[in-house]
Each structure stands twice: as structure tokens, then as C-alpha cells.
């Protein structure tokens, strides 16, 4: 084998690259690129796959979105969910990760990490069913409340508590992943910084504020972006636990997109909704990346 | 350059062709048979009673028609809805489908169903049951069932007896009076509901029935709905008053998977408006038998008119290679003797007048008596377009009005506008 110029690939390398990438590119094209392009095209049509004709309607689907009360509510609900669930997730997962990192015994450290990660392995649809029964009128949570002399709560049927119940379930189901990421980030911070801080007489809180948090910012940014993307598109627990009820208080955008696409078969309209969600995810992600830029190495 | 391009993209092309090749027609439903028999594929829901009744009729038909083989394929209700849409959209439907009547219009409108070769059987069926199977003067299937969700109420008679209330209640006021006395409240929350109707179906059907029982209509001459008439306002006011003034039920389970009939069979309500199909659910699923199903009185002095969706029935796909044979089987199913056997086994209200009026039928299913007596008052709900959208639009406003978030007038205006826009899009 010989290289004709620096950096150029040999024929064998090119062939290897092409054959290696072909399956991945095909899968990407078939299941990501084509559906995205198709979705973008559909949003300009009144498209129902059963209909003989699908008229081009330009921006009508977007104009309709502006006056669709259910969509506007799902828009607000999505942000309400994200605004509560993401900070709660990050505070909780970071605290637990720091707590587990303090454990010296390798066995216990691994045990706790595994325990917190277990719900991530369980299918979220199954977890949602289990939590629905727990939140029921005669479910485990109300039984526990009654044991302490407190009244039962209509967790999933009350507009005030329904969203909070789903957030609680989501946190339980989802924190394991971020805990592992944060633990990896914490492990990567060199001990020498903490030793220096100790010698200078810094308290644990000061070390956390001035060493852990800044040096964990890249990890935190990754966690924040991935969690935001995931939570903006959250669907199974909303479908299974409340189906958007009561009074649409738990109807999020992903659920509204699903209903319009597959219940009402308004696929053009659902595509317009999905495009709005895509834009939101894109804008928030770009903002997060720009605001979270750091110019350091260790 | 071309060579380089070809070298890069030929593998993509070949792989793509392999995938397409593997996929080609693999999902198709066979329409023929290697042994010379005509093979018909029939899709239905996996409801055990329906499946059993369908299989019996298949056996009987195949015994008399040796050249036909019918392959019954069943799916869970939700999966059936999605599979049908996918199969028809991809031009690969089964020959016969057991469809819910309200779905039929959309498939017929888009030329996806084969119309009946002759429609002489029309007069044998109730108009309310046949309604959704008609489109532009043609018949696109035969209903087996007269879907009825009104004019009957599940009652725990023992609760009446224990409270010393005259039974059965015969007027609207008597029902509401009894419901108020039977409602049990603890710590400000309703423990036993006197009269429950807080599901989307119950609310919608009661609302429409109450409009009709005032001698009014909810359809306009141009094919839109009018839900802001004085009669519609009165009906919605009376319905929401049950929550806010009479306090015989509440919204704590509205929209949840806990349907009112389930609440009833768990003993947490005294009366619940429901279709007769809930009777067998109560006996089979909830193992409850100490209840009765009695007529629900009219909201006014007029007869208890009600709106009904066309029920389950058979349609034939336009794309079927054996549409003639498929229609022959559908006609066989609709013969009174076979229709009766199907209705008895599935505990459904007959769409066929002869079956419904047959004294032997009510002897075989005495629990159906209340519904059979009400059939004369039913009328087809009309071309509702997207039924789920319609029902949600009304139910959303019902819950908002019931929760005091919006006035009856504004709520009904919103529901009306949403439904009319949907109807315009569906035209």
C-alpha cells in the first residue's frame, strides 16, 4: 500500500470506509433523513393517507396552530414540564452522584450506582403502568398517606397534581443515566485541586462551588442538553398515565402530535406541530451550547 | 470521476435494492390459494365474544361453500384501527373487515370500499344502524349491531331499597332526586356517585339525546353543527348542573381510564348511564350480578329520542380480488338466522329489525329488553367526520364548564367552532 499524498486514503482504505459506512448511512437515510424531509414536505399539505386528494395549503397548518387552543395548551404544558423536571433532575442527580462518589467502599459504590440505574433499564411504558397503579385512588401512595392520617389525593385526576405526579415518575425513571454521567465527570476532576483547597483551608461547600461546579461545567452542559432534548419530546408516561387529562393539563406537544397524526389522521397538521417542536429543540440546544462555552482544559 | 462516484455509491444502491427486494410484497395479504380455493382474509377486533361468533359463522359458511376458505385475523381494538389505516393507505387491505360503523364513511368516501352489489337488504335494517354505511346513495357494508349508548342506565337496586326510594325512577326529576339522595359524600369528596356520566361517550350521547328530546336538531341544513341553540344550551346546563348544583357526580375521574361503568361495578356509584354492552362486562369481567339495567327517562315530556352510531358490521375492500365472494359471505352473515346467532353470542343489539322483533331473541337475552324497546327512538348520529375529535371537543368543554372555567355559552361556541372546522376539513 502506498499513499499518493499526505492525508489521502488508499484504495483499500476507501473501500473499507465505504463498506463500513454503507449500512449506517442507509439506516440513517431510511429512518432519519427521509422521514424528516417527508415530514417537512407534509406540513404544507392537508394530508390524510386515506384521502384521495391531499391539497397543498401553504402555511395554513401554521396559521391553524396559532388558534388551536389544545396545541397552545400543550405548548405551555411542555415548557411547564421542562421548567420543573430539568432543574429537579439536575439538582437531584448531581447531589446523588456526589453522595455516591464519597463512598469509599467500591462494592457499595457500585451497588448504589446500579440501584439508581435500574429504572433506566426498565421500559418506560412498563414503569408508567406501575406508577399509574401506585397513584390510583387505592394505590400505594394513598395507602401510605392514610397510614400517616393524611387524606387520599387524586394524583392523576386533579389538574393541580397530575403534572407533578408525572414529573415525579419521570425523575424516578430517568435519574440513573445522569447520575452515571455526573459520576464520570466527578471522577475526571483531578484530586490535586481538592488537596490544594484543603491546604488553603477551604470548606467542602467552597470546594464544591469553586472547584466541582466549574470543572464539571462541560459534563453539566452535556447533561443539560441531552435532558432538555429528551424531556421536550417526552411521550410514553403522558400517554399511559393520563392521556393528556384532566382538562388537557398534562397534554404535551409530543402527545398532541401523536393524536393528530394517528388518532385524527391529520398528518400534515401533525408535521407542522413536529416542525415547531424541532425548532424549539434546535433553538434551546444552540442557546445552551453558546451560553455554556468554556475555554479551559485540565 | 464517474468511476470513483460509481465505486462509492454502488454499494449503497445494491444494499437499497436488497432491502426493497426483501420487502417487496412480503406484507401483502394472500388473496388466492394454491389448492384452487378462494381465500378471503377477514380482519376483526380480538374481542373474545366477537371472535367466537365470527368463527362459528365461518365454519357454517365453509361447510356450505367448499370453494371458499376464510382466514379470520384478529387484533386488539387500538391496533386494528391503526392497521386498517395503514393497510388501506398502502393499498394492501384484507378482503373483509369487521368495522365499527362510524369508521366506514371515511373509507367509503375515499373509494376504498366495494359497494354492495344490490341493496335490497336496506329495508331489513334500522336506519340508525345503517346510517354510516351509506355514502352518496350506495351501501358500503352491512351492520350486525345497532350501537346504542343511551336510554338505559345501570342501577344498584339495593341502594334504592336501603334508602327507601321508590323504584324504578320513571321521570327525569325522579332520577335526579334519587341520585341526590343516593350520593354519599365524605370529607367534602364524593364517595358514592348518585348518577355518573363523566366519560366522553356518556356525556356526548346524553347531550345529543337531550337536544333531540326537546324536539330540536344539532345539524344545520348545510352540514354543520349547531351546538349553541337554546335547546343545546339548556341540555349542557342541565348536564353540568349535575356536577355543580345537584352534586351527584364530580370530575375526579373524568378522562381517566376508569370509565363510569367500571366505577359502578366497583360499587362506587348508584346509577350510571351506559350502553347494554356493559351488562356482560359487569357479569363477566367484574363478576357482579346484583344490578339492573332500566330505561333512562326522557329529559322532557317527549319520547326518549337518542342519537346512535352505526355499530359493528362487515365491509369489503375495493382492492379485494374476490369482492364478489366476499360480499356473498357478508350477505350470508346478515341473514336473520345468522345475524341472530351472532347477536346472541356477542350480546349486541341487533341491527336487523326481524331479529330485534323476534320474541325468541329477547327470551334468549332477556337483559336486552330495555334496549330493544328503545330502538324505535334512535336516529343516526349523522356524518360526524372524525368521531374522536368531535367527542373530545364537546367533552373538553363539558369538563371546563363543570369546573367553572368557562360559561356554557362560550364553551359550546368553542366546541361548535372546533367541530365545524373539522367537518370542513373532512369534506
TrEMBL record, chain A:
This protein's record includes keyword Membrane: yes
Organism: Cohnella zeiphila
Protein family according to the UniProt entry: Belongs to the binding-protein-dependent transport system permease family.
Alphabetized PANTHER family for the sequence: ABC TRANSPORTER PERMEASE PROTEIN, INNER MEMBRANE ABC TRANSPORTER PERMEASE PROTEIN YCJO
Protein's membrane topology: Multi-pass membrane protein
Residues of the ABC transmembrane type-1 domain: 75-288
Recorded superkingdom: Bacteria
Transmembrane regions: 21-45, 81-103, 115-135, 155-173, 215-234, 269-289
GO BP: transmembrane transport
Keywords, in A-Z order: Cell membrane, Membrane, Transmembrane, Transmembrane helix, Transport
Principal location class: membrane
One Gene Ontology term, aspect cellular component: plasma membrane
Protein name: Sugar ABC transporter permease
Locations listed in the record: Cell membrane
TrEMBL record, chain B:
PROSITE patterns assigned to the protein according to its UniProt record, in alphabetical order: PROKAR_LIPOPROTEIN (PS51257)
Annotated keywords: Signal, Transport
GO biological process, one term: maltose transport
Record has Transport as a keyword: yes
Matching Gene3D superfamilies: Periplasmic binding protein-like II
Signal peptide: 1-20
Pfam families: SBP_bac_1
Keyword Translocase: no
Entry's Gene Ontology cellular component terms: ATP-binding cassette (ABC) transporter complex, substrate-binding subunit-containing
InterPro entries: SBP
Molecular-function annotations in GO: maltose binding
Similarity comment: Belongs to the bacterial solute-binding protein 1 family.
Protein name: ABC transporter substrate-binding protein
Source organism: Cohnella zeiphila
Amino acid at each position: 500500500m502506498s499513499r499518493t499524498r499526505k492525508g489521502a486514503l488508499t484504495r483499500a482504505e476507501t473501500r473499507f470506509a465505504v463498506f463500513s459506512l454503507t449500512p449506517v448511512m442507509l439506516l440513517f437515510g431510511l429512518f432519519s433523513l427521509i422521514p424528516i424531509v417527508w415530514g417537512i414536505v407534509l406540513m404544507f399539505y392537508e394530508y390524510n393517507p386515506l384521502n384521495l386528494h391531499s391539497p397543498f395549503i401553504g402555511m395554513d397548518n401554521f396559521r391553524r396552530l396559532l388558534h388551536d387552543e389544545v396545541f397552545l395548551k400543550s405548548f405551555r404544558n411542555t415548557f411547564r414540564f421542562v421548567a420543573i423536571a430539568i432543574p429537579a433532575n439536575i439538582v437531584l442527580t448531581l447531589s446523588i452522584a456526589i453522595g455516591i462518589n464519597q463512598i469509599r467502599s467500591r462494592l457499595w459504590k457500585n451497588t448504589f450506582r446500579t440501584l439508581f440505574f435500574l429504572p433506566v433499564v426498565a421500559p418506560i411504558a412498563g414503569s408508567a403502568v406501575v406508577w399509574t397503579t401506585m397513584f390510583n385512588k387505592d394505590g400505594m401512595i394513598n395507602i401510605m398517606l392514610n397510614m400517616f392520617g393524611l387524606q387520599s389525593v387524586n394524583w392523576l385526576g386533579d389538574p393541580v397534581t397530575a403534572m407533578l405526579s408525572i414529573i415525579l415518575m419521570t425523575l424516578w425513571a430517568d435519574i440513573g443515566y445522569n447520575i452515571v454521567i455526573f459520576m464520570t465527570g466527578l471522577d475526571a476532576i483531578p484530586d490535586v485541586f481538592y488537596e490544594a483547597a484543603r491546604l488553603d483551608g477551604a470548606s467542602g461547600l467552597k470546594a464544591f462551588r469553586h472547584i466541582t461546579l466549574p470543572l464539571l461545567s462541560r459534563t453539566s452542559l452535556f447533561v443539560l442538553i441531552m435532558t432538555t432534548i429528551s424531556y421536550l419530546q417526552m411521550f410514553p408516561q403522558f400517554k399511559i398515565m393520563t392521556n393528556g387529562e384532566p382538562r388537557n393539563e398534562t397534554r404535551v406537544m409530543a402527545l398532541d402530535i401523536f393524536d393528530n397524526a394517528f388518532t385524527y389522521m391529520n398528518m400534515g397538521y401533525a408535521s407542522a406541530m413536529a416542525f415547531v417542536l424541532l425548532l424549539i429543540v434546535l433553538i434551546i440546544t444552540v442557546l445552551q451550547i453558546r451560553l455554556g462555552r468554556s475555554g479551559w482544559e485540565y | 470521476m464517474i468511476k470513483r462516484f460509481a465505486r462509492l455509491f454502488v454499494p449503497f444502491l445494491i444494499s437499497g435494492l436488497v432491502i426493497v427486494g426483501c420487502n417487496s410484497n412480503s406484507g401483502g395479504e394472500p388473496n388466492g390459494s394454491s389448492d384452487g380455493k378462494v381465500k378471503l382474509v377477514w380482519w376483526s377486533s380480538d374481542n373474545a365474544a366477537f371472535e367466537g361468533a365470527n368463527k362459528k359463522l365461518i365454519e357454517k359458511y365453509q361447510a356450505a361453500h367448499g370453494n371458499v376458505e376464510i382466514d379470520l385475523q384478529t387484533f386488539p381494538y387500538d391496533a386494528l384501527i391503526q392497521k386498517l389505516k395503514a393497510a388501506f393507505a398502502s393499498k394492501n387491505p384484507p378482503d373483509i373487515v369487521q368495522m365499527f360503523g362510524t369508521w366506514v364513511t371515511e373509507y367509503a368516501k375515499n373509494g376504498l370500499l366495494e359497494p354492495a352489489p344490490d341493496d335490497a337488504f336496506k329495508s331489513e335494517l334500522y336506519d340508525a344502524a345503517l346510517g354510516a354505511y351509506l355514502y352518496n346513495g350506495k351501501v358500503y357494508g352491512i351492520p350486525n349491531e345497532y350501537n346504542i349508548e343511551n336510554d338505559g342506565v345501570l342501577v344498584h337496586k339495593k341502594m334504592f331499597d336501603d334508602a327507601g326510594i321508590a323504584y324504578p325512577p320513571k321521570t327525569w326529576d325522579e332520577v335526579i332526586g334519587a341520585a341526590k339522595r343516593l350520593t354519599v359524600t365524605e370529607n367534602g369528596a364524593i364517595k358514592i356517585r348518585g348518577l355518573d356520566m363523566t366519560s366522553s361517550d356518556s356525556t356526548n350521547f346524553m347531550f345529543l339525546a337531550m337536544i333531540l328530546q326537546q324536539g330540536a336538531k344539532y345539524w344545520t341544513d348545510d352540514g354543520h353543527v349547531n351546538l349553541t341553540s337554546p335547546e343545546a344550551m339548556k341540555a349542557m346546563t342541565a348536564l353540568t348542573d349535575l356536577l355543580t348544583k345537584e352534586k351527584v357526580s364530580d370530575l375526579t375521574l373524568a378522562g381517566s381510564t376508569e370509565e363510569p361503568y367500571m366505577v359502578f361495578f366497583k360499587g362506587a356509584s348508584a346509577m350510571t348511564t351506559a350502553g347494554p354492552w356493559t351488562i356482560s362486562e359487569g357479569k363477566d369481567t367484574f363478576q357482579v350480578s346484583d344490578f339492573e339495567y332500566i330505561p333512562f327517562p326522557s329529559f322532557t315530556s317527549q319520547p326518549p329520542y337518542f342519537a346512535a352510531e352505526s355499530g359493528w358490521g362487515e365491509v369489503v375492500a375495493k382492492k379485494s380480488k374476490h369482492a364478489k365472494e366476499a360480499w356473498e359471505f357478508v350477505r350470508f352473515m346478515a341473514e336473520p338466522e345468522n345475524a341472530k346467532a351472532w347477536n346472541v353470542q356477542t350480546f349486541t343489539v341487533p341491527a336487523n329489525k326481524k331479529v330485534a322483533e323476534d320474541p325468541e331473541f329477547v327470551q334468549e337475552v332477556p337483559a336486552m329488553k330495555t334496549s330493544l324497546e328503545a330502538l324505535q327512538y334512535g336516529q343516526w348520529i349523522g356524518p360526524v367526520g372524525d368521531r374522536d375529535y368531535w367527542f373530545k371537543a364537546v367533552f373538553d368543554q363539558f369538563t371546563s364548564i363543570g369546573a367553572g372555567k368557562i360559561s356554557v355559552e362560550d364553551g359550546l361556541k368553542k366546541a361548535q367552532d372546533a367541530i365545524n372546522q373539522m367537518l370542513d376539513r373532512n369534506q
